[in-house]
Automatic annotation (TrEMBL):
This is Glyoxylate/hydroxypyruvate reductase A. Coiled coil: none annotated. Residues 108-279 form the D-isomer specific 2-hydroxyacid dehydrogenase NAD-binding domain. Signal peptide: none annotated. GO terms for molecular function: NAD binding; oxidoreductase activity. It holds the Pfam family 2-Hacid_dh_C.
């Protein structure tokens, strides 16, 4: 850190900066903390904590040493056409956010494996019918995206006895998980999985990936869970696949746009569960701890982590 640049700027569109300021102040009591719109000297800002920052804002900070994302993704920062090239963009990654994603995924798989969706329908019908418990080892789970979140989810499922497969851009080696990569690998994995979980980042290659072609490649009646990005999903293709029975059910946590429009048919679809982007919650305490650890690392001459890849987009 330079002698002049020794403050942090909160630049979070649509967020109240005060709770974050309070948590950061408790974690970093010696750091000056400002919010966008306040009176501050741009030359004093060494760090920026961002969520969809105002385009061009970060370029006005000559002493900027690191850009901290308030989420695991960095696409909302890369969208800035004037983004400075030098500072590393640090993704939000914390043991608690990894655990949150793992728990959400495990919940979804257990929900459908134990046919809780069927039991709920039977309850509304006052229908008492036994539901045979299936052999979980024969119900394969496929995870799209084997980064830190995907790996945590895969390990949580293997620990419960599920057969887990995973697909990523490049080869991965995760104990107990059969890994696939590239277009050929995806084509090999899809026909085998009963539950497909998307934890992919937002890139040009992943936009629209969850489409009619992908759904057709899954076994009939497969379940789809989208925890990646809303624009990964072609909504009309999923609705058609649900209508035909090719997809048996879906749980959706992310949407394009958000909030989901009131007239979306997903709200009332009997085979769709909706959650309001709660797969993980980078709350103020988690963010403050992650930022604090990285500022301490940087003060010792170490690089922050994990740093997003600007070229790959995540």
């Amino acid at each position: 850190m330079t002698n002049q640049a020794n403050a942090l700027l909160i630049a979070a569109t649509g967020e109240d900066p005060e709770p974050y300021r309070q948590d950061l102040a408790r974690r970093l009591p010696d750091l000056a903390i400002h919010a966008e719109g306040e009176d501050y000297d741009p030359a004093t800002i060494a760090y920026a904590l961002c969520w969809k920052p105002t385009p061009g804002l970060l370029a006005t900070l000559p002493g900027l040493e690191a850009i901290f994302s308030m989420g695991a993704g960095i696409d909302h920062i890369l969208a800035d056409p004037e983004l400075p090239v030098a500072p590393p963009i640090v993704r939000l990654m914390h043991d608690r956010t990894r655990d949150q994603i793992r728990d959400y995924v495990v919940h979804c798989v257990l929900h459908y494996y134990r046919q809780m969706d069927v039991a709920a329908r039977q309850q509304t019908e006052k229908s008492w019918k036994f539901l045979q418990i299936r052999d979980k080892s024969q119900l394969k789970v496929g995870i799209l995206g084997l980064g830190e979140m995907g790996t945590a989810a895969a390990q949580g499922l293997t620990a419960l006895g599920f057969t887990v497969m995973g697909w990523a851009r490049s080869p991965k080696n995760i104990a107990g998980v059969t890994s696939f990569h590239g277009a050929d690998g995806l084509a090999q994995m899809l026909p085998q999985v009963s539950y497909l979980i998307s934890l992919l980042p937002a890139t040009d290659e992943t936009v629209g990936l969850l489409d009619a072609k992908l759904f057709a490649a899954l076994p009939r009646g497969a379940v789809v869970v989208n925890l990646g990005r809303g624009n990964h999903l072609i909504a009309d293709d999923l609705l058609a696949a649900l209508h035909s029975g090719q997809i048996g059910a879906a749980t959706l946590d992310v949407f394009a746009p958000e909030p989901m429009p009131q007239d979306s048919p997903f709200w009332t679809h009997p085979n769709v569960r909706i959650t309001p982007h709660i797969g993980s919650d980078g709350n103020g305490q988690i963010i403050a701890d992650a930022v604090g650890l990285n500022i301490e690392r940087m003060s010792r001459g170490l690089a922050p982590e994990p740093v997003g890849d600007r070229n790959r987009g995540y």
